[in-house]
Amino acid sequence: MGGMTRFDSATAITAAGPGSYTADLDAGYLIGDAMNGGYLMAIMQAAALAESSHPHAVSSAFHFLRPAGEGRLHVEATTLKTGRRVTTLQVAAAQHGAQLVVATISCAEVDAAAVPDYQAPFPSIPTLDQCYRYEPRSGQDSVPAFSERVDQFYTPTTWERLRGRGAERVPELAGYVQPSERDGGATEDPCGFLPLAVDALPPVVAALGSWRWSPTVELTWHMRAVPEPGPLMFLARAEVISDGWFDETVDLWDGKGTLVAQSRQLARSGR
Amino acid sequence: MGGMTRFDSATAITAAGPGSYTADLDAGYLIGDAMNGGYLMAIMQAAALAESSHPHAVSSAFHFLRPAGEGRLHVEATTLKTGRRVTTLQVAAAQHGAQLVVATISCAEVDAAAVPDYQAPFPSIPTLDQCYRYEPRSGQDSVPAFSERVDQFYTPTTWERLRGRGAERVPELAGYVQPSERDGGATEDPCGFLPLAVDALPPVVAALGSWRWSPTVELTWHMRAVPEPGPLMFLARAEVISDGWFDETVDLWDGKGTLVAQSRQLARSGR
């Protein structure tokens, strides 16, 4: 707490002209040779919000064209419509002149004091102190740097699935995520962490023993509430794995049990 | 069967230059003064596929800026990346010089013979012959033309909910949809009907007695399989209704029980 965290620094944008921003990508967010998609989404969201008079990215759709590597990222944000309640922007991220990710982001204000008229029943997930801390490939030479950027805790069932010992073949992962304690803990703006949180988990197909590279083709997420500070509970699941494609739906709840983010992506299962 | 249906004619596009298309909107797809969003999505998908070497729109994200009315629609499709497996395009629809809907659509080929590696358990929904045919506001003066464009059948539970007689307050609707028999039945291409099908239902909040105008802010849908001809089973549900916003997730299965489409939208609940 207090001062910028590594996430805050890594997602800082610099104005470079009307609607133009740059960010210097932090190699700590690499998974292999490619930057984590959630990290790029967080930077693109910052650019959209810098251009919008509304404070929250409520609905954001990203198409991933090419992976990003180390170095400077160029982000262009173009306002499509400014409304009283909603402002919609197109945002494109490029490196070395090639477009990598395109997004359309609708910004609005989410009332932090809103009480839901309806919320679906809360899933039955063990508490954080019943979960195992995730330390991927610990003891191995090739620990990906990214695994240190987000603290992850898995339920006992999820833990078994990720170790290939699941009793049944179910592509579902559950547990808790929070900004990395070793990187400085809570981020300046808990809403800025949400795009990273929905895309920081191992691919849900890992629950079936497939740890291969799973490039995201498209990811849409909706912010549904302003999160309370603290760990977020997550539930990730797939409905269909077929023909080299899988969907991954990730829901996040804050410590008060409020659904704060809903995400769904379509990805390729690596070969 | 045989010959073009009204849907096929209504979604026909005419080339008007490189990447440019026009369509003459059919007033039969109006809901009040605004064209149904699924109808516009079907036209924009046709433009994307006309520009792509891949035959299926596998992942499509739409942001709705302004409602469309009667008359000519101008559609511009711009290819962002052509890949061996996926082509991604941006598509914009305009009327009278104003952008109405923007989309990013990734096209690929879905293998019609693919057998899923995994599919989530099939929901328990009554068969079509146990369902009630939906005839909205029949007997009233103001039957919206759109209600005749898609045949809808509701389960007994859904029927009760839509009549305000649900035993519990659950925003979930289930049943079957198919191209309108009175409009000529099955469409030329069953995949072309999917964007209409995911957005043809009453808003899921209607299950709670709210039949008000519910403008969609964003809708993303993924095509997961080539549908068999015939009615599609649907399940629509909301996770959260809060602060004037609601999500609506719609899944569609074909007669063989294969999940063919997954859709989620974020919408405003009308005041």
What is the topological layout?
Two copies of one chain form a homodimer.
Chain A: H1 6-10, E1 14-15, E2 20-25, E3 30-31, E4 34-35, H2 37-51, E5 56-64, E6 71-82, E7 87-95, E8 98-108, E9 118-119, E10 132-133, E11 150-154, H3 156-162, E12 172-179, H4 190-197, E13 216-223, E14 232-237, E15 240-242, E16 245-253, E17 259-268
Antiparallel strand pairs in A: 1-2, 2-6, 3-4, 5-8, 5-13, 6-7, 7-8, 10-11, 11-12, 12-14, 13-17, 14-16, 15-16, 16-17
Protein name (chains A, B): Acyl-CoA thioesterase
Pfam family, one (chains A, B): 4HBT_3
Domain Acyl-CoA thioesterase-like C-terminal (chains A, B): 135-267
Task: Tell me about this structure.
2 copies of one chain form a homodimer. With 271 residues, chain A is mostly beta strands. Chain A has one domain (6-110, 127-268): Beta Barrel (Porin). In chain A, 13% of the residues lie in helices and 39% in strands. Chain A is built from 4 helices and 17 strands. In chain A, the strands form 2 sheets. In chain A, strands 1, 2, 5, 6, 7, 8, 10, 11, 12, 13, 14, 15, 16 and 17 form a 14-stranded antiparallel β-sheet that branches. A two-stranded antiparallel sheet of chain A has the order 3-4. In chain A, strand 1 (14-15) and strand 2 form a beta hairpin. In chain A, helix 2 runs antiparallel to helix 4 (190-197). The N and C termini of chain A lie far apart (42 Å). The mean pLDDT of chain A is 93. Strand 9 (118-119) of chain A pairs antiparallel with strand 15 (240-242) of chain B, so a sheet runs across the interface.
